[in-house]
Specification:
With 307 residues, the protein is mostly helical. The chain has three domains: 106 residues, Helix Hairpins; 107 residues, no CATH class; 64 residues, no CATH class. It contains two helices and no strands. The longest helix has 68 residues. The protein is flat. This is PE family protein.
Length: 307
C-alpha cells in the first residue's frame, strides 16, 4: 500500500490558478469567434466559395473543440477544489481523536503536577518567565524569553522530562545577560544552548545533560559598549612668571638683560629695556624661554640714543 502526502492549502491555491487559466482560454476563444465564423467568399466564383466554405468549416470545428476543452477544464478545476476540501476534512478527522487521546493521557499529571506526561513545553512570551518544561515522559523544554529592552535579561529555557532536549535560553537586552539553557532529559537528551548576552554582557550558561547526551553550548557574549569621547586639554599655567632681566647702564647705553627661562608650566621672564646712552641706545634684553605648556617672556625695548 502506497501513502500520499498532500498539502490542502497548496491544492486550493492551484485550483484558483487553474481557474484563471480557464478564464484566459475562454476569452481567447471568444475573440477568435467573430473573425472566423461566417467567413465570406473573396469572389463569386466556385473556387472562392469552396475556400470560404473550407475555412468556415474549420472555424466551426474549432469552436466545438474550444467549448469541449472549456467544459473539461471546468470539471478539472472543480475536482481539484473538491480534493483539497476532502484532504482537509480527512486531516481534521484524524487529528481530533488523537488530540483527545493525548489530552486524556496528560490530564492526570497536568492536574497533580502542573506538567503534561507527553508534549513539548511552551516558549516564554514575557519578561521574567522561563520556558515551559517538557512532558515528564517525553518532550523538549520551551525556549526562554528573548528581551529587546535594555537592562532586561533573557530567561532560562525549560527542562526536558525523561527523554528530550532542554530549551534554549533567551537573549538578553543591551547590558543584560542571556538566559541559561534548560537541562536535557533524565535518561536521554542534550542540554539547551545558553542565550546570547546583550551589548557589554555575558551570555547564558548551557544546560546540563544528565545521563546520556551532550551539554548545551554557552551563549555568546555581547559586543563591547562604545567608549566616551576624549576631551582636549586646555593651557593651564600654575607658576608665576620667571625673573625678568636687569636694566642696561644709562652711562654706556648697554642692552637690557635677558629674562630667565621658565620651568614647566611657567612663563619665561621678560627681557629688560635697554638704557638711554650717550653714544647710542642699548638693545632690549631677550625674553626668557617659556617652560613646557607656557609662553615665553617678551623681549625688552631698546634704549634711545642722545648723541
Amino acid at each position: 500500500m502506497s501513502f500520499v502526502a498532500t498539502a490542502p492549502q497548496l491544492l486550493s491555491v492551484a485550483a484558483e490558478q487553474a481557474g484563471g487559466i480557464g478564464s484566459a482560454i475562454g476569452a481567447a476563444s471568444a475573440a477568435a469567434a467573430a473573425p472566423t465564423i461566417g467567413l465570406l467568399a473573396a469572389a463569386e466564383d466556385e473556387v472562392s466559395a469552396a475556400v470560404a466554405a473550407l475555412f468556415g468549416s474549420h472555424a466551426q470545428n474549432y469552436q466545438v473543440l474550444s467549448s469541449q476543452a472549456a467544459a473539461f477544464h471546468d470539471r478539472f478545476v472543480e475536482a481539484l477544489r473538491n480534493s483539497a476540501g476532502w484532504y482537509a476534512a480527512a486531516e481534521a478527522a484524524n487529528a481530533n481523536p488523537l488530540q483527545c487521546l493525548l489530552d486524556a493521557i496528560n490530564a492526570p499529571t497536568q492536574t497533580l503536577l502542573g506538567r503534561p506526561l507527553i508534549g513539548n513545553g511552551a516558549d516564554a512570551v514575557s519578561p521574567g518567565r522561563g520556558g515551559g518544561d517538557g512532558g515528564l515522559l517525553y518532550g523538549n523544554g520551551g525556549a526562554g524569553y528573548t528581551s529587546t529592552t535594555a537592562g532586561v535579561a533573557g530567561t532560562r529555557g525549560g527542562n526536558a522530562g525523561l527523554i528530550g532536549a532542554g530549551g534554549r535560553g533567551g537573549g538578553g537586552g543591551a547590558g543584560a545577560m542571556g538566559g541559561g539553557g534548560g537541562n536535557g532529559g533524565w535518561l536521554y537528551g542534550a542540554g539547551g544552548n545558553g542565550g546570547q548576552g546583550g551589548a557589554g554582557a555575558m551570555g547564558g550558561a548551557g544546560g546540563n545533560a544528565l545521563l546520556i547526551g551532550n551539554g548545551g553550548a554557552g551563549g555568546a557574549g555581547g559586543d563591547g559598549a562604545s567608549g566616551a569621547a576624549g576631551v582636549n586639554p586646555t593651557q593651564h599655567v600654575t607658576q608665576p612668571d620667571a625673573t625678568p632681566g636687569g636694566a642696561g647702564s644709562p652711562l654706556t647705553g648697554t642692552g637690557g638683560g635677558a629674562g630667565t627661562n621658565g620651568i614647566a608650566g611657567q612663563t619665561g621672564g621678560a627681557g629688560a629695556a635697554g638704557a638711554t646712552g650717550i653714544g647710542g641706545g642699548g638693545g632690549g634684553g631677550a625674553g626668557g624661554a617659556g617652560g613646557d605648556g607656557a609662553p615665553g617672556g617678551a623681549g625688552g625695548a631698546g634704549g634711545d640714543a642722545n648723541g
